[in-house]
Q: What sequence folds into this?
């Protein structure tokens, strides 16, 4: 399961509408890919359809899809949004990450 904070929900809905997506029917695709200064990096994009093997969740009114491989790295993660002085953007609070980089966009297990 992937959780979505209230601030992340508001930003997701706003960005989806700006990009022509419907937050009530379309998805936020969350994934993990190789790269970044810690070895793995997060991938976040909008999608209108799920693929075979995707895990589907809904939390706080946001529909999330995760591919099977990425799901193993993301179990228990909370998607948050930070708009503070230290940077603006989505933040992944991942309890599985042993090490994260300073930017918070990559991690290792």
A:
């Amino acid at each position: 399961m992937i959780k979505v904070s209230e601030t992340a929900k508001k930003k997701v809905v706003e960005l989806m509408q700006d990009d022509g997506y419907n937050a009530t029917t379309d998805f936020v695709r969350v994934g993990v890919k190789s790269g970044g200064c810690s070895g793995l990096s997060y991938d976040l994009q909008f999608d209108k359809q799920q693929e075979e093997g995707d895990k589907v969740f809904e939390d706080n009114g946001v529909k999330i899809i995760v591919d099977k491989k990425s799901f193993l790295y993301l179990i228990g993660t909370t998607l948050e949004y930070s708009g503070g002085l230290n940077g603006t953007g989505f933040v992944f609070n991942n309890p599985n990450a042993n090490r994260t980089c300073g930017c918070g966009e990559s991690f290792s297990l």
Remarks:
- The mean pLDDT is 85.
